[in-house]
Give the backbone structure.
Amino acid sequence: MARSIDVNIKHLGAMLKRAAELRGTAFVEVYQNCNIFNDGAFRQMTDKNSRDDSVVYLEHGKPLVFGKEDNMGIRLSGTRLEVIELVGHLGPENCLVWDEDEPNPAIAFMLAQMGPPDFPTPIGVLRAVEAPRYDEGVTRQIEQQIEIQGQGSLEDLIYSGELWTVGEGGEITGGRS
């Protein structure tokens, strides 16, 4: 699960490439300007004068630092995220280090909700958790049952349980095979 901006071609290309390489399902949210319905909605994130203070790039294994001079950061304070100014005794080591493959989705969900005016907008991979694909799980279940019960046949399946007969007059009789 990732997020990017349409005019940041290099970043958008990297996010789409990662999504395409993934075995399974990928979701990429693309912030895209529409000059009819939402003209300028993402201007703060794309304007040269404001984008560095409005966007935090999510890079796996790196602290969440942003700003024109990398002087701002995001840290986890109790159960909330907060913006801190990196001055004096506060440095990048006090910021949340991004972990895109964290199995617990709570922090990724909190980051996805960040945005103006109190927070920068996170851009990048929000989650990249390896998990079994649905088709692999179904195939594995079938193989396990064949090991336990044997290969089976359609005829055995048809005659394996309750049988119901509908007579010429519409009467229904049931019984075991």
